[in-house]
Amino acid sequence: MAGIRTNTAIATAAILLSIFALVVFLTPWQDSETDPPLAQAPGVSTSAVAAPEPTARACRDNPQASVDIPASAQLVLDAMDLETKVNQMFVVAFHGTSVDTDVEIERTFNEIVIGTATLGDLLGDGGIGGILLFGRNTPDVRGAVDLTTEVQAEAAQAETPGVFVVVDHEGGQVTRIKEGIINYPGAPTLGSIGDPLLIRDVAAATASQLRSAGINVILAPVADVARPNQEGPLDDRTFGTKPTDVASAVAATIDGFATERVAAVVKHFPGLGSTTVDSH
């Protein structure tokens, strides 16, 4: 058994706030006519998925613009009590490869075990909003498909909204699924080429692979700007040293993910690229 630390979940709550409406409320969870089944084996050709309406782009171009929540989404919100809404803001990490994994729930910071539940319990009765996958959960694509299918089935049985399945995948040196997936070059290589269309295509190809494995949120791209002539912990994970070039590459990556209806989580923090010590 291994612990899920509630501070991990709380730290990711801010991420959920930024993508909650985009993924769950502004697009259907699973459209049988357009979306490939979550359990579809990787490598099987699927029909193209139409890109969502450019809501995020419109808001970026016009910060004063408002986004209307669709009536169907409002019905989902109205049906939730406060506890359910709070639980939906949690994304948890865990050890194991199935929903039957026993989980020790630890009190924040001091690691005192205050309860035990299975991952299935947290998804069903608990109604958590998402899971964060690591290599220990998904050694290969087949394992990822099996696990994410179980996870979504558990949530559907409990009649909770679909689950955010989150993975840290930047390409290059930062990946979680090691087998059965093409690992494209990371940000430094793509940034040095400087072709936004290429970056967009690579992002779309990456998102397509991960979505076929049941993943719908990617903790990328890295928007940090490396500092010229200074070594830093993120030098081999950034698109470059010029803010305008990095911004263009980041926008292209987000657009590429969006074509496959996968949400991007931009990271890390303003100024982190100029640090000399790894804050992790």
Report on the structure:
The chain is of the alpha/beta class. It is about 35% helix and about 10% strand. It has nine helices and eight strands. The chain has helices spanning about 5-25, 55-60, 70-80, 80-85, 120-125, 140-155, 185-195, 195-210, 245-260, and strands at about 1-5, 90-95, 100-105, 115-120, 130-135, 165, 215-220, 265. Strand 7 (about 215-220), helix 9 (about 245-260) and strand 8 (about 265) form a beta-alpha-beta unit. Helix 8 packs parallel to helix 9 (about 245-260). The longest helix has 20 residues, at about 5-25. The protein is globular, with a radius of gyration of 19 Å. The two termini are about 25 Å apart. Mean pLDDT is about 75; it is low at about 1-60.
Notable features of this structure?
single chain, alpha/beta, five-stranded parallel sheet, 9 helices, 37% helix
Structural topology:
Elements lengths: L1 E4 H20 L29 H7 L9 H8 L3 H6 L3 E3 L8 E5 L6 E6 H5 L6 E4 L7 H17 L6 E4 L19 H7 L2 H17 L4 E2 L24 H17 L3 E2 L16
Parallel strand pairs: 1-3, 2-5, 5-6, 6-7, 7-8
Antiparallel strand pairs: 3-4
Helix pairs in contact: 8-9
